[in-house]
Design a protein that fits this description.
Number of helices: 3
Structural class: alpha+beta
Largest sheet: 4 strands, mixed
Strand content: 25-35%
Number of domains: 1
Helix content: 25-40%
Radius of gyration: 14 Å
Mean pLDDT: 84
Number of strands: 4
Low-confidence stretches: none
Strand order of the largest sheet: 3-2-1-4
Order of helices and strands: HEHEEHE
Shape: globular
Length: 82
């Protein structure tokens, strides 16, 4: 059996030196399930999340372009998650 080492969650926060953010397409239901402390979202929305390297949300937008623009405004490089 092949063994895989898993990086601790705390180590993800240091990835990219605070300069990398991830853009991920999500539904409003997926977003609420992943981040239950976020304010109300209408059901059935297609959203784009901008996430820190550790997976915590920075912002959510209704377009990929808006999420990327927010990253650029905050001097963050973006990568896409699928």
């Amino acid at each position: 059996m092949e063994r895989h080492n898993v990086m601790p969650n705390e180590a993800f926060a240091d990835l990219g030196g605070g300069k990398i953010a991830y853009v991920k397409a999500m539904t409003s239901e997926d977003f609420r399930a992943a981040f239950p402390n976020v304010g109300p979202l209408a059901p059935g929305l297609s959203l784009w999340a901008l996430l820190n390297a550790d997976g915590s949300p920075i912002m959510v937008a209704d377009s990929r372009e808006a999420a990327i623009q927010n990253a650029w405004e905050n001097d963050l490089s973006t990568v896409s998650l699928h």
